[in-house]
Design brief:
The chain is of the alpha/beta class. The model has no long low-confidence stretch (mean pLDDT 97). The two termini are 18 Å apart. The strands form four sheets. The chain has an eight-stranded parallel beta sheet with strand order 9-8-7-3-2-1-11-10. A five-stranded antiparallel beta sheet has the order 12-13-14-18-16, sandwiched between helices. The chain is 26% helix and 15% strand. Strand 13 and strand 14 form a beta hairpin. The chain folds into three domains: 355 residues, Glycosidases (TIM Barrel), CATH 3.20.20; 47 residues, Oligo-1,6-glucosidase, domain 2 (Alpha-Beta Complex); 65 residues, Immunoglobulin-like, CATH 2.60.40. It contains 14 helices and 18 strands. The longest helix is centred in the middle third of the chain and has 16 residues. The chain binds 1-O-alpha-D-glucopyranosyl-D-fructose. 1-O-alpha-D-glucopyranosyl-D-fructose binds next to loops.
Length: 499
């Protein structure tokens, strides 16, 4: 479809390194573990991987509390291991993206330690947001967004108290992050995923809010207009490097419209659209959500996402059968798509993690009222013989093991692998356009040129599929015969059709 830049139709696989692959048996995944699984990722057929934070961190928030932006957590490896991973990935045609965490750092970061050691009003404190009294803002993880220090001042942390917010009004903070960005681009990464990209700048007046939980609406701390000059400057850095580097902002919004200013020309190359994580498996809701993205910018600039390390696993949200139909939707939509590790195995959310083993600050800060996100971060079952892992794998985890799924034509892994292979070959897939096809109210169907149709049955009884010449791929193997014999799609299934 005349795609010019690799990221416009890339399938990117999100790796949560501590929960991916453990190369040294210490029950924690590591960078060498990722490198040892590059063959798996190449066979699966992804174009790139995004590594969530692997930097030195006291793990107040799974590594999103960064103590050193330019190093590797010694438990996960070394910078040499990182370079080795990038090199071997390149040899397999896989690009590497790293996570940039600019809204906050770790309370153990040397700059924050220096701020604590310095008096109120000092230059050191000006790297963060210190005040004599708190506002009424709440932390995203529960409880207040401010913590008091011994001399009486308070510092802002939109997330955990171990994650102080940087002061983006301070030019030194800008310069610091430019150097961090260059550090990783110089090491050969293909791009950055920008954490809480709707955060960073706060209203300098730090006002109390009418609603102390404004969710992801524009507010005194989210979606500030100052962001866009910053992102234009980052875009210029990216563009100054060889090889079409990208950056994808993690921008959560209540309404798709709020994404608009991020998608103006010259800003970050991409921002996620989380539409598919926010709506039910309902033809009307999905169609509206997809249209909203298509009208704004399309999936090339606003990649599609079914799940990530922050949201309940798709299999648990939809049920396994519909999650397979959703996977075919994700990979048929125009533009780029992200797959979170384990989605290709159909892993469900793990509910029964013992409280003492839970690591998510949201669990801690809500006194256990919110279970938090550990349930989608349980390490990948590579084989049916379970190994000890930092978040415990349930007894039934082996059922989802990679080695078991490889030989099973009806497995999730085989479906994802087949879909990704077809997506590479089929001229209609990847970037481009789509046109809805009308059918009954339970049919979600669209055509892409040349000659491709996605059709899903979101209802409870069989529906007639749109006219087709050929069945390319079905969410369940048995659906092929039903389509050929009766032209019908059973409930909860989807197909890729040639016409
Ligand atoms: O998540 C961002 C995040 O949690 C918020 O955008 C939040 O979802 C929303 O505003 C609530 O309404 C990122 C990481 O993906 C997550 O794992 C981290 O915990 C978080 O940032 C803090 O770094």
């Amino acid at each position: 479809m005349g795609t010019s830049l690799w990221w416009q139709d890339a399938v990117v696989y999100e790796v949560y390194p501590r929960s991916f692959a453990d190369s040294n048996g210490d029950s924690l995944g590591d960078l060498t573990g990722v490198r040892q699984k590059l063959r798996y990722l190449a066979d699966l057929g992804v174009d790139a991987i995004w590594l969530t934070p692997f930097y030195p961190s006291p793990l107040a928030d799974g590594g999103y509390d960064v103590a050193d932006y330019r190093d590797v957590d010694p438990r996960l490896g070394t910078l040499a291991d990182f370079d080795h991973l990038v090199r071997d990935a390149r040899d397999r045609g896989i690009r590497v993206l790293v996570d940039l965490v600019p809204n906050h750092c770790s309370a153990e970061h040397p700059r924050f330690r220096a701020a604590l050691a310095a008096p109120p009003g000092s230059q050191e404190r000006d790297w963060f947001i210190f005040r004599d009294g708190p506002t009424n803002w709440h932390s995203m993880f529960g409880g207040p967004a401010w913590t008091q220090v011994p001399d009486g001042q308070w510092y802002l942390h939109l997330f955990d108290s171990g994650q102080p917010d940087w002061n983006w009004q301070n030019p030194d903070v800008l310069a610091f992050f430019e150097s961090v960005i260059r550090f990783w681009l110089d090491r050969g990464v293909a791009g950055l995923r920008v954490d809480v990209a709707h955060g960073l700048f706060k209203d300098p007046d730090l006002p109390d809010l009418d609603d102390p939980d404004p969710a992801d609406h524009p507010s005194a701390y989210y979606h500030r207009p100052e962001l866009h000059d910053l992102y234009r400057s980052w875009r210029a850095i990216l563009d100054s490097y060889h090889g079409d580097r990208t950056a994808v902002g993690e921008v959560w919004t209540e309404e798709a419209q709020t994404l608009r200013p991020y998608l103006e020309p010259g800003g970050l190359p991409q921002v996620f659209n989380f539409q598919l994580t926010r709506v039910r498996w309902d033809a009307g809701e999905l169609r509206e959500a997809i249209d909203a993205v298509q009208t704004l910018a399309g999936g090339a600039r606003a990649p599609w996402v079914l799940g990530n390390h922050d949201v309940t696993r798709p299999v648990t949200r939809y049920g396994p059968r519909r999650a397979r139909a959703a996977a075919l939707l994700l990979l048929a939509l125009p533009g780029s798509a992200y797959i979170y590790q384990g989605e290709e195995l159909g892993l469900p959310q793990v509910r029964g993690i013992p409280p003492a083993r839970r690591a998510d600050p949201r669990f801690r800060r809500t006194g256990g009222r919110a279970l938090g996100r550990d349930g989608c971060r349980v390490p990948i079952p590579w084989s049916a013989s379970r190994e000890p892992t930092w978040l415990p794998q349930p007894a039934w985890w082996g059922r989802y093991a990679v080695d078991a799924q490889r030989g099973d034509p009806g497995s999730f892994l085989r479906l994802y692998t087949a879909a990704l292979a077809m997506r590479r070959d089929h001229p209609a897939l990847g970037a481009g356009s789509m046109a809805w096809l009308e059918g009954g109210q339970d049919l979600l169907a669209f055509a892409r040129e040349p000659g491709f149709v996605y059709a899903a049955n979101l209802g409870q009884v069989p529906v007639a599929a749109p006219p087709f010449r050929k069945v390319l791929l079905t969410s369940e193997p048995a659906v092929r015969d039903v389509l050929i014999a009766r032209g019908a799609l059973p409930p909860g299934t989807a197909a890729w059709l040639g016409r």
